[in-house]
């Protein structure tokens, strides 16, 4: 994979590093801009993008003097144009504008759009050989082989942002890859870690998004609650580190202090630790290849006292089993799983289905959509569309 040291402008002494933030209005996007804002003169913002949150996007574009602001939903073009009147920021809207934004020559691109909607814009940045800080794990779940092949073929530099994968990246010995025995992905267990299935029947969106350790967007928070997030991260780790699935473990660790571990053939286990604040992994990628200051609380293990560990429970959290089965089935299964999960999570957040229906709908979608392996981006997008339609039909049929 592309752990190259492709040159980035020396942000500490030379010209500002040019950066684009895809999904700038979200949780990862705002944390990224928080770090950029603390380092005046070190970064020049090329493009910022959102889906529909014009107010935040316009405020960010003004604050960071962005060259371009893009809203994916074209219905919001007029409002964005008006909000940025009198500034030097160009304004654009729609899916093609999103891809064009990613194609502009920023050295460093934060990929923080949520869901498969981020795949095409992120690939634009990969295809021009940029440094990609990847938060958008769904890219790798729905198109992992295609994505990592493009990283390698185009000479892009790939830096994982997801806290677990960033942790692994920090302790993974790429020069002695054959000496790596296992990857150990830690999981908080989410807000329902100790709940029975019966207790989970009546879970509300408010309860599901209340993650015990992390402050994140709604979709990933629900994924953590179903533990689908850990399943998606399992697939993500498989692709990023080219690790066979039988050498990746999931370990529940409720405190989210150890962000993940790598175990070596000599019995050494290396881990990355820190307080749960995404500004640490984002700073790792923004400063790359040098570490930069992040304003996060420092880890105080003496005060924490005890770290707990538990085995994951696939019976209470069937998403973990579905991911294992999807990886075994291969072909289109991970793409279908991801698309169905996105549709089901959105329906849950809209109070159209119950919490336990999410995994059940993913399972039924996997049974119904054909599993032919995608060999191109067009294939991936077609499978993604089909799976979304099947899952939406299942929801509709259940409601009728
Ligand atoms: N939050 C976290 O701590 C972590 C997040 N991640 C991953 O990072 C990604 C982003 O997560 P997070 O920041 O929490 O998500 P948020 O929901 O907070 O933000 C999502 C961003 O994507 C934009 N967006 C949403 N839908 C579309 C679309 N169809 N087209 C274009 N842009 C869109 C949103 O714009 P708008 O505001 O206008 O809706 C927003 O800028 C996810 O893949 C998540 O799994 C990984 C690890 C940790
Ligand atoms: C911050 C981050 O990387 C999230 O993906 C986080 O890991 C979610 O926590 P769990 O899925 O372990 O509950
Ligand atoms: Mn994570």
From TrEMBL:
UniProt: NADPH binding residues: 25-28, 53, 136, 138, 217
Presence of the UniProt keyword NADP in the record: yes
GO terms for MF: 1-deoxy-D-xylulose-5-phosphate reductoisomerase activity; isomerase activity; manganese ion binding; NADPH binding
Domain DXP reductoisomerase C-terminal, residue spans: 273-389
Pfam families: DXP_redisom_C, DXP_reductoisom, DXPR_C
Catalytic activity: 2-C-methyl-D-erythritol 4-phosphate + NADP(+) = 1-deoxy-D-xylulose 5-phosphate + NADPH + H(+)
Residue positions binding Mn(2+): 162, 164, 233
Pathway noted in the entry: Isoprenoid biosynthesis; isopentenyl diphosphate biosynthesis via DXP pathway; isopentenyl diphosphate from 1-deoxy-D-xylulose 5-phosphate: step 1/6
Alphabetically ordered keywords of this record: Isomerase, Isoprene biosynthesis, Magnesium, Manganese, Metal-binding, NADP, Oxidoreductase
Enzyme class: oxidoreductase
UniProt domain 1-deoxy-D-xylulose 5-phosphate reductoisomerase N-terminal: residue ranges: 19-144
Binding site for 1-deoxy-D-xylulose 5-phosphate: 137, 163-164, 188, 211, 224, 229-230, 233
Annotated stretches, region: Disordered: 1-23
Domain 1-deoxy-D-xylulose 5-phosphate reductoisomerase C-terminal: 159-241
Family: Belongs to the DXR family.
Record function comment: Catalyzes the NADPH-dependent rearrangement and reduction of 1-deoxy-D-xylulose-5-phosphate (DXP) to 2-C-methyl-D-erythritol 4-phosphate (MEP).
Name listed for the protein in its UniProt record: 1-deoxy-D-xylulose 5-phosphate reductoisomerase
The species this protein was found in: Roseospira marina
Organism classification: Bacteria, Pseudomonadati, Pseudomonadota, Alphaproteobacteria, Rhodospirillales
Gene this chain is encoded by: dxr
